[in-house]
Amino acid sequence: MKQKTKKYEFTITCQAEEIVSLVNQLLAKVKKFYPEADELLINLEIAIREMLANAVEHGCKKKKKATKFWQQPTIKVELYFKQAGIYIIVTDPGSGFNWRERDLVTMPVFTEKGRGLKIINKLADQITFNQQGNQIKVFFSL
Length: 142
Prior knowledge:
Layout: E1 6-13, H1 19-33, H2 38-59, E2 74-81, E3 85-91, H3 116-123, E4 126-129, E5 135-141
Antiparallel strand pairs: 1-2, 2-3, 3-5, 4-5
Helix pairs in contact: 1-2, 2-3
């Protein structure tokens, strides 16, 4: 049975409080398409939480500008269902980071910071970044 590509887009402001609601919305979409994929749901939930937490913590460090036209920075999330699997893309408003210099494989021991990308890399089948480093794309095969 050939499955058509399905795309969903979400936007949240740079508020950590919005993460839980968005994670629940994303997981509900996945459950609808793959109701028997319990292990996949667990891995997706952890990865999505880490991606959004990184976006809020590192990509939303813009200071409020002294202008009446200032708008709250936002984070864009895209969810794609394709024949091969699920793609999740998170784009934050930050200037990005140099992902080429990051070790995504070796897990740190007992550190408070620096685990998020390594966890995502371990759970997902593929992880990529845009050139700027303010967008992460993960793929989970089915």
